[in-house]
Amino acid sequence: MSDQSLQAWVGRSRTVDDVLDARQANLMCATMDMQAILTDGQPLPPLWHWVYFAETCRTDAVSTDGHAVIGDFMPPIDLPPIGLPRRMWAGGRVRFHNPLPIGAAATKKLTIKSIDQKEGRSGPMCFVTLLHEIFVEGELCLSEEKNVVYLEPRDPAAPAAKPPEAPGGAQFSRTINPNSVWLFRYSALMFNGHRIHYDVDFCRDVEGYPDLLVHGPLLATLLAGLAAEKTGPLRTFTYRAVSPIFNGADFSIHGRNSDGGGAFWVTNPAGGLAMQAEVTTG
């Protein structure tokens, strides 16, 4: 598919309706080991909208990596001549306009905002930026630009890149103990079939990873929760995945406040940077 053909997908949009029901929110509470019981009318915690508006597809419409096949709404970047079959959630920018009330009927509008082919250190890649807008009773409550990166197949024998050094100066930190049940439950809440989060043989034999990967959205949710706890209600949350975090080894989340916001990040067990985020409040 040529770049010109890819650009024809820019501007495509669709809408998805859902109810931000309390049962799903409380399943997320249990998954995150929170004692709170959430009820209708309370605001949904930051980034918990990701466990709603599930992308539903039949099992016979799932690709070998567990994702839904692309070429319907998302462009078929996995097919020749581009041929980039690996999909990863690379980062994004979220703006919180108004609270999302639990129990409300909501509508999400998805729009393909841009498609950019690039050459990285590891080879060709393609970034698709999606604009997600969530409305309740016609009022815009949340807008999000989500970056999805498409990559070449990974050589399982290739050595892993060394993560960059994490920033210093944390004012607060927290240790997280990942396990496969936690990852599976979060996948189930998202209706996320990506096998890197639950199929360890796929991780090792196909992707060349030592163990299951912790979801990028889950890392971002941990950072947003820490940020809201330490800085107050969030206005914006911008994050970028840097390197993977794996199941079975404790990792840490960190943050420091600044005037009107703060910086937050995830480190792997060796102290390398896995994800970084910036927040504004107000």
Notes on the protein architecture:
Helix content is about 20%, strand content about 35%. The protein has two domains: about 1-155, Thiol Ester Dehydrase, Chain A (Roll); about 155-280, Hotdog Thioesterase (Thiol Ester Dehydrase, Chain A, Roll), CATH 3.10.129.10. The chain is built from five helices and ten strands, in the order αβαβββββαααββββ. The termini are far apart. The chain has a ten-stranded antiparallel sheet with strand order 1-3-4-5-2-7-10-9-8-6. Helix 2 runs antiparallel to helix 3 (about 180-190). By secondary structure, it is of the alpha+beta class.
Write the layout of secondary structure elements.
Layout: H1 3-7, E1 13-19, H2 22-31, E2 86-96, E3 105-120, E4 123-136, E5 139-151, E6 172-176, H3 180-190, H4 200-207, H5 216-231, E7 234-241, E8 251-258, E9 261-267, E10 273-281
Antiparallel strand pairs: 1-3, 2-5, 2-7, 3-4, 4-5, 6-8, 7-10, 8-9, 9-10
Give a brief description.
The protein is an alpha+beta fold and 282 residues long.
Can you count the helices? 5
Amount of beta strand: 25-35%
Cα Rg: 19 Å
Give me the count of strands. Answer: 10
Q: What is the ordering of alpha helices and beta strands? A: HEHEEEEEHHHEEEE
Helix content: 10-25%
Instruction: Tell me the number of structural domains.
Output: 2
CATH-level-2 architecture of the largest domain:
Roll
Q: For the report, how would you describe the main beta sheet?
A: 10 strands, antiparallel
Kindly, what is the distance between the CA atoms of the first and last residues, rounded to a whole number of angstroms? Answer: 44 Å
CATH homologous superfamily title of the largest domain: Hotdog Thioesterase
Low-pLDDT sequence parts: none
Which class do the helix and strand fractions yield? alpha+beta
Strand order of the largest sheet: 1-3-4-5-2-7-10-9-8-6
What's the CATH topology label of the largest domain? Thiol Ester Dehydrase, Chain A
How confident overall, as mean pLDDT? 93
